[in-house]
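Run Phosphoglycerate kinase through structure prediction, thanks.
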Amino acid sequence: MAFLKLTEQNVQGKTVLIRSDMNVPFKDGKISNDTRIRASLASIRYCLDNGASVIVMSHLGRPTEGEFHSEDDVAPVAAHLGSLLGKEVKVLNDWRENKPVLAAGEVAMLQNVRINKGEKKNDTELGQAYAALCDVFVNDAFGTAHRAQASTEAVARFAPVACAGVLLADELDALGKALKNPARPLVAIVAGSKVSTKLTILESLTDKVDQLIVGGGIANTFLLAQGKSIGKSLAEHDLVGESKKIMEKMAAKGGVVPLPSDVVVAKTFAADAEATVKSIDEVAEDDMILDIGPKSAAVLAEALNAAGTIVWNGPVGVFEFDAFAGGTEVLAKAIAESKAFSIAGGGDTLAAIAKFGVTEKISYISTGGGAFLEFLEGKTLPAVAVLEQRA
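Sure, done. The structure for Phosphoglycerate kinase is below.
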């Protein structure tokens, strides 16, 4: 990929507009996890350290365009950002009527971009209005790179200079390393509740990987394709044929989709449900498969230990319930201990990484959910494509 990088730009005396992803969660009115804000600091600090003024813009929640409600206000985010930077960060509510003029070293934040009419439809006029605020536009929001919106795509077309921020550039470099020229064997873990939501990813990865590990409801559908009984476990019966094709395609290239030989089952879906380890051939009609068994986890751990590159998206069991977290924990620790270059992405995956204390041992943790998945599919990310066009 050829695109300009912020760290290659002279920003002295310039106003830099940074599209960050500071869409943080709240609990009881307070920010409950500031990971995304902290991940955005590198680009902001680069600009401040090099004599620029900075305007940050981000979305927050899912507001209705043209309507402002108190829960949509980015003021708490701006205040937290200010505390991390050690300076005030004002929220600009009337930036279209009164173009902000900032001195070098000052930071401000636009009000929630998704309140602006035309944001989601990638409105040209709105993109031009964003671009008029700056000398340099920086996209540092990998989590929204798969969306062509006014604050991610249109603005990049009209800004005097458009480049990738530190976080976005790092994401693209890491993903490129994992998929474009990976150390072999390349092992991918794709897990989740439904094959349908990740079918195109699975199909795409069969062309790239040496081993494809599936988990969760996806694995159950693949087990059905093998003719196994899965009781009342979550699965998609209408996608058994597609699952067979994926396994056949992997087999034709000498690869494999390893499925569990033992599983952890329960009669109900609950944290306090009794967990029982069974051979896959012993699953009863009223059993629900909620995790892979210890034997299966050990087999997968060996494969991960021998990998050159690991791409991980999705836990292999209901890890939120401790009784059904064992499989995901074994895999998480195997990835952490492997010498392979590992990259992980997706909200549940990051939650599992945090739960099992292996955050520091994963080579790269992607901040993107949908963008991470679409990159794995081989799709063009609109907000990245425009940066390549401007390079």
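The radius of gyration is 23 Å.
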